[in-house]
Amino acid sequence: MSIYSSLYAGVSGLTALGNSMSVIGDNIANVNTTGFKGSRATFQDILNTTVTTGNGTTQVGQGTVLSDVSSAFSQSGFETTDSITDIAIDGEGFFVLSPDGSEQKFYSRSGAFTVNETNSLVNSAGMIVQGYQLDAESGARVGTYGDILLDSTIAPPIKTTQVSLLTNLDSTETKSANANELFARWDATDTAADATDATKDGKIIAETDYSHSATIKVYDVQGNSHDVTIYFDKAFDGTANKWDFIVTTNPEEDAAKSPNGVVTDTTSGLLSWGFIQFDSEGKISDIQMGDGGPAAIEGSAEYLSFSADFLDDATENPMSIELDFGAKWNGTTWVSDTLATTQYASTSVNMFQSANGFARGEIQDMTISKDGTIRGIYSNGKTIPLYQICLARFNNNQGLDKLGGSLFRDTVESGPPAINPPQTNGLGQLISSSLEQSTVDIAVEFVKMITTQRGYQANSKTILTTDQMIQTVVNLKR
Fold it and tell me: Which of 7, 25, 378, 467 is deepest in the core (most CB within 10 A)?
């Protein structure tokens, strides 16, 4: 074995440690880079050479070589920011990004996102974050993932399809002195405001003609709001535990009976009528409405419905609105929910009332939840699901191709990405208004720098000493 081999061993050490210093320098340079995963250099010895000794043969090493530079895909800490679109991943996964107009996909742990001029959610390089579009009403995912385009700055109006009213009707109430059914007491053409008019007293139906009422706001297909008032009174025929009710609106807004807002029909504004029968325990046992009872419920519906025509537009009207008193028809009987309309011996009161649908609204703010759901908050008071950010997971993170710009690309070694919503398939959760910090520990890097520097000096000494030994051999002949 030649003495010159020790020169090459020293050179291999210088080369390997020089590359190691480059890794350390890169780590320190990225100590504040969002989502950066620090690298670690590892070494291995070079194939040994067999030499002859007094006891036979043995092996002598030929130096070292840089075997691998791996990234530390450990979880780092979080930095709180004041931007909702700054997002950190707590756990496994990578954001999926795509250049505008391209099918190519890249992956990143850096969640410093903004909304650009086209309302796309993008990173600093303009790549669009990928996610699932969500149905505005159900929140269900629509199709596969794609570009997140937050262009829903306007929430279009949604017409009302269901009204819910949960109330308690006082069982101690007595029936009205009026001998007619509640719907027969409605006269849209008689709105005299004369206080001496004991029949109407300035209202379409007098306060003495009903025991309880509730007014709920509903919306037509254009987003116009309308008040729907439901009146209740003990049954005119005196049947025990039975209440009459009518569903009404402003007669001038009943386009079916008052064209152009001119009231000529006494039943204008009277949308439906019926009765609720309670059992001895004060729970609903039967509901009849208009011309039909439960037998009129079609398909898988669970509630009776009424019609409302608010617009002079035959293509959209009349609207069909389900009326939910807190009891559902299961095909055989009415089944009350945990909270439902009741008849107990206490003051009549509305416990809950609501209607779906809403007017047009403009987006004012948005939120991003742990499962990646982006919701828009609109001026009409509605919060609407828009998109759900997706994450990618790989079998071998070390096999990813590091591209710079906090981006990775999948390779054969990493395996194909498994893309799913956060908090599924082992993926982590998202934290809005936060950024994941670099995994680089500067104190550790400085220690590595010292040992690398000393190792480099030692290898240079190996070369220097070997050179002196060679010089000694050269000087044997003068």
Answer: 378
φ, ψ for residue 335 (rounded to 5)? -115, 120
CA nearest to 441, candidates 74, 27, 23: 27
Other CB atoms within 10 A of residue 25 CB: 12
| Architecture of domain 162-359 in this structure | Sandwich (2.60)
How big is the chain by its Cα radius of gyration, in Å? Answer: 39
Task: Give the C-alpha separation, 75 to 86, whole Å.
Answer: 17
Burial of 111 from C-beta contacts in 10 A (0-12 / 13-18 / 19+): buried
Q: How far apart are CA 214 and CA 7, in angstroms?
A: 96
Asked whether the beta carbons of 276 and 284 are under 8 A apart, the reply is yes
Please tell me the chain's helix, strand, coil percentages from 3-state DSSP, rounded to the nearest 5. Answer: 15, 40, 45
Task: For 118-146, give the secondary structure using H, E and C.
Answer: CCEEECCCCCEEEEEEECCCCCCEEEEEE
Spatial strand order of the sheet with 225-234 comes to 212-219, 225-234, 242-249, 270-278, 284-289
| Token representation of residue 188 | 């849209």
What is this structure's pTM? 0.66
Beta bridge partners of 365: 377
For the chain, give every residue range classified as CATH 2.60.98.20. Answer: 162-359
CB 466 within 8 A of CB 12: no
Q: How far apart are CA 149 and CA 156, in angstroms?
A: 17
pLDDT > 70: percent of the chain: 91
Q: Scanning the structure block, which residue is given the tokens 């210093």?
A: 21
pLDDT (average), residues 381-387: 88
Give the contacts of 283 (CB within 8 A, at least 6 positions apart).
336, 340, 342
- Distance separating alpha carbons of residues 366 and 374, to the nearest angstrom: 7
DSSP assignment of 51-120 equals EEETTEEEEE---EEEEEEEE------EEE-S-TTBEEEESS-EEEEE-TT----EEES--B-EE-TTSB
Total H helices, total E strands in the chain? 2, 33
Q: What is the pLDDT of residue 317?
A: 63
Distance CA 17, CA 66 (A): 8
Where b means 16+ CB within 10 Å and e means fewer, 70-107 reads ebebeebebeebeeebbbbbbebbbbbbbeeeeeebbb
Confidence of residue 46 (pLDDT cuts 50, 70, 90): confident
Q: Where are the beta strands (DSSP E) in 235-283?
A: 242-249, 270-278
Name which of 388, 371, 346 is nearest 429 in CA terms.
Answer: 371
Q: Are the beta carbons of 326 and 340 closer than 8 angstroms?
A: yes
Of 69, 79, 130, 72, which is closest to residue 105 (Cα–Cα)?
130
